[in-house]
Amino acid sequence: MSLVVRxxxxxxxxVIDALAGFGVATVHEAQGRDGLLxxxxxxxxxxxxxxxxxxxxxVAPGDNWMIHAAVEQCQAGDILVVAPSSPCExxxxxxxxxxxxxxxxxxxxxxxxxVRDIAVLTQMGFPVWSRVVSAQGTVKETVGNVxxxxxxxxxxxxxxxxxxxxxxxxxxxxxxxxxxVAQAAAKREAAEVEKRARLAAGELGLDIxxxxxxxxxxxxxxxxxAPAGREx
Amino acid sequence: MSLVVRxxxxxxxxVIDALAGFGVATVHEAQGRDGLLxxxxxxxxxxxxxxxxxxxxxVAPGDNWMIHAAVEQCQAGDILVVAPSSPCExxxxxxxxxxxxxxxxxxxxxxxxxVRDIAVLTQMGFPVWSRVVSAQGTVKETVGNVxxxxxxxxxxxxxxxxxxxxxxxxxxxxxxxxxxVAQAAAKREAAEVEKRARLAAGELGLDIxxxxxxxxxxxxxxxxxAPAGREx
Amino acid sequence: MSLVVRxxxxxxxxVIDALAGFGVATVHEAQGRDGLLxxxxxxxxxxxxxxxxxxxxxVAPGDNWMIHAAVEQCQAGDILVVAPSSPCExxxxxxxxxxxxxxxxxxxxxxxxxVRDIAVLTQMGFPVWSRVVSAQGTVKETVGNVxxxxxxxxxxxxxxxxxxxxxxxxxxxxxxxxxxVAQAAAKREAAEVEKRARLAAGELGLDIxxxxxxxxxxxxxxxxxAPAGREx
Amino acid sequence: MSLVVRxxxxxxxxVIDALAGFGVATVHEAQGRDGLLxxxxxxxxxxxxxxxxxxxxxVAPGDNWMIHAAVEQCQAGDILVVAPSSPCExxxxxxxxxxxxxxxxxxxxxxxxxVRDIAVLTQMGFPVWSRVVSAQGTVKETVGNVxxxxxxxxxxxxxxxxxxxxxxxxxxxxxxxxxxVAQAAAKREAAEVEKRARLAAGELGLDIxxxxxxxxxxxxxxxxxAPAGREx
Amino acid sequence: MSLVVRxxxxxxxxVIDALAGFGVATVHEAQGRDGLLxxxxxxxxxxxxxxxxxxxxxVAPGDNWMIHAAVEQCQAGDILVVAPSSPCExxxxxxxxxxxxxxxxxxxxxxxxxVRDIAVLTQMGFPVWSRVVSAQGTVKETVGNVxxxxxxxxxxxxxxxxxxxxxxxxxxxxxxxxxxVAQAAAKREAAEVEKRARLAAGELGLDIxxxxxxxxxxxxxxxxxAPAGREx
Amino acid sequence: MSLVVRxxxxxxxxVIDALAGFGVATVHEAQGRDGLLxxxxxxxxxxxxxxxxxxxxxVAPGDNWMIHAAVEQCQAGDILVVAPSSPCExxxxxxxxxxxxxxxxxxxxxxxxxVRDIAVLTQMGFPVWSRVVSAQGTVKETVGNVxxxxxxxxxxxxxxxxxxxxxxxxxxxxxxxxxxVAQAAAKREAAEVEKRARLAAGELGLDIxxxxxxxxxxxxxxxxxAPAGREx
Lengths: 232, 232, 232, 232, 232, 232
Known about the structure:
The structure is a homohexamer.
Chain A: E1 2-5, H1 13-22, H2 24-30, E2 42-43, E3 50-59, H3 65-71, E4 78-84, H4 95-103, E5 108-115, H5 118-124, E6 128-133, E7 150-152, E8 155-157, E9 162-166, E10 169-173, H6 178-200, H7 205-208, H8 212-217, E11 220-223
Parallel strand pairs in A: 3-4, 4-5, 5-6
Antiparallel strand pairs in A: 2-6, 3-9, 7-8, 9-10
Helix pairs in contact in A: 1-6, 2-6
């Protein structure tokens, strides 16, 4: 038996929007270098930067039927997260489904498979992070689950978790941790402002971060010339 | 013995141009989800959307000699389709060959290998779909066939078949089927206009396509909350 | 023991700038089709075209500590070349390090690993050629060598060698050969001007290069129609 | 903060042993075609077939320190499951660690990374399923978690879940479902005995499963000869 | 509409058996270095060496239904050739289907997808060449074609063509060319006997094939010591 | 101009043989975790374990001509190391070349490309480490260098360097360092004997290596139960 779960918890929208602003790299660092989806997920156009609540959708290989069932569960501010039950590169999603999601206020799609109609999606400004671009059509024969936890591109995504996606990739933040992560990200971003200014002024990271001594302790030596015979 | 075949049949130019307008995803669906080349073929710039008659060219690995022989067989409205006899990523094609093809009215290149000079090709507006970008030069030592059928990126291409290529990838349509496929594509596109409007207005695909009953028959259930212990 | 070598020889800046102008494909041909780094190194934005003196930096997997040590060895006109000691796709480099390199007049980064903050790097106009884009953060625990020869993306790079990088990829020119290669590239480029004009005017490469006889000697035949039964 | 969890629940040993007997394909089917780890995990020698309770271990890229911490948490009947926090192919595990695990009665290793000393591991009869074989050594600098849930090769593994591994790959069974899955697998295996006998006697699956009518309903037609012009 | 074609022509069995004896490398050379399927097709056990008449079977991704329909079309001496309509790694085939094929005298399976139950298949001595090993089960929902030409692993295979498969991979020989190719292979093999003996006796290929002069003409020079500064 | 260098220095044969005995993992560690070739080089049969002096050979893609020139430069105790000038998977090497090398006392082949006739090579006991197995034949048209330094599978190999290869992969040791590395490897191996005994007796690496305190300093904590809400 496959299930569509209608009610899922969602994080606070203001927190979600804050996470979008920090971006994937900062959010991922702020939660302890955790939660990245695999780097093969790439945006179909750049720049693109969103965050939203995950509606999860498991599909069979070569079969996009469940995406239609998932659309109904999406609301404004959500991001649809689709993963096939075994590896597949077919073009599960195109401009008609995007039109439907856009009508519901959905912010974008993350799919561990293929997408098509990317010229139209780009014109629409509907962002998608996918494994490949492929025009390959799919069938509608096999059911799967909507809004149950699933592994997408190597990361566990629970329905209602916050998805942050930008040009650097895609990150998932546990719904319960969203506010805490947003705070940590804000702190991290603030700290970077001063560092960026000092680096721009020509100061070295070696000095700002005080690295020289520990590098030496670990065995690093500075020499004026390469010793004879040091090749790779 | 290797052959260059001088005379190949071509589809009607108006049909070819119509196919270009429908795009790869629609054309591929219109002929029964058939004819796609592998999704690793990507355009060197976007957007790009063309169709044309295939002039086929088999090359040896690391050897672009036969492309020079193939150029002579190209005429206005053609697309050159190149495949190596064993996997190779070298940069078989650059701006000089593109200049030559452009002078003959050729619409673009599809190559299951590498291409180079892509900055110039982009400035020229000469579209290429390739496996990789690589500056690696090639030799001119080994002959191959021009205008015999060949497998390119996993699909059989006969000389004179119609190639349709856009941001979604590359599709081949048998020359004899081109008119019929164009008709089917037109029908499909017309049907999508109404659907797109209804989806944009917020109607659900589940309802437009009447999917709910069949989903239930296949075992899908809608529940308000996730049952305990359902994890991926 | 790991080393940071402070003094490295560099090629003449005028020669380096000339190589940047010729581009990767021409330079690679001019030195005998040699010196290309693997084609999986791609620029984070296009167009991008630079040349500079290599400062080399070996890093441990998932550890970007040594990049901080390498920054100090970079000067105006350099390109930082980073390679991990075993395959890694982490995001070793982001906008803070780019700010620091930019402050020193460094022209760009070549890294056989991942990069992040690419939206900001694109805005900054700081070019990077990398294996992947990944937000994955790194630690600072393990030392490596700066300015010793290293293999990056399949090519040996010595400190002070000239790196040429553009939309076609990345090429290395031995420092000692830089002037000679620049001359050969200039000669090659000059020769292409006339050829390009003739090709644009519709002349065939077959004729310009006098290929027909040798093609026939190697067994190529021109026929009007495909013989029966010739399939791929 | 990283954690080592000392106490984890385990499934009944008799159930685990039963699952080992059924093998990966049957177990995966018996639990609804679910739970497979990615097919790139391959055994270092064949045949190999085990099942055991998962002790999970998260490691940093290029750093096998936490495996030493995980060994202490392993007991007889366990399988150690290791996943790096970002993709890495280094050789995290060799004959010394295998000796240590063997001394504790551990049944094998599943690792989404590299393994080395495979000639010795093969002689020892200590089975390993890994992504690659690599001699690349690792450091001991970064801590991670032991016995927290983790994603390994695309599948969520909780500590105490049952791992089933054989020549076909690796499958995870939720600890709570283990008995139920074993029953379903037994039923499935029993049903296959009769089918195998009938198939061996020359009966067709088309007839045994009564497929002909439904195939025809879906549009399949049997013809004596291929119609003209049907090409791929 | 999908088709199962009942009657296909087959090559002479004695010729097929002769081709099996020559092996893939020799047969591929004998027909002009043509007809190899992609090298990612690997045997599940070694050594294995067969030849047979191709029964072709197109399957949907994640759907092995048509294999059941194809089995009925197989007869003694055949090899079943399966290709998915889009890339898929699922385990389409296991020991039950092998039992059925074995009962019909089928010699083996070539599949551009996954296979499972390989421990049993190895015990049975039923050889399979596949893209991957995967336990992933499939559905039975979508029809496809049996005994129409198809592209498998990058090569066109017509029903009734001869498939030759061994430890080196898989090769297809056009049915009409089978006798001619077998003759050429015999000639090639005979020629190698003498060469092998001379090489085993220490004669050099450079001398046996008289290569020295032509190598020199192409610019090769023999020197006693490497010139200064020749690095990669 | 391409060169064949006739005279190359070689390491002491007793040292080479000692390195063969230590194996790849130990040798690589003994020289500071350096010198591994990429892990995609795999032996065609197992077990296999050799060491020898590198004779290097650069080949063009799809062209094995230079291997014939390299054979003449090989002597007893050597290992032939072949790398293509751009990525290629063709089957450059088969049983005839192996017969020739065997007649000269060559110990094996390392090739960053394809190999064929592996059933015969296995029977002969001639070990090969290659990127793929492929029957694809090659031409003899383009010259390259023999016994100049080259990058093979990501590592620099100088002629006369020591190649160590076994089931774990391939490692290069600089000729000048060979004796020193052999000593370090012997020391390392000796140290492992005692550790292996202690581990086999049930002692923990945590205790043998005294890791507990430093793990705790880096933030590792041991807890009896997983805290609530700790998911991947």
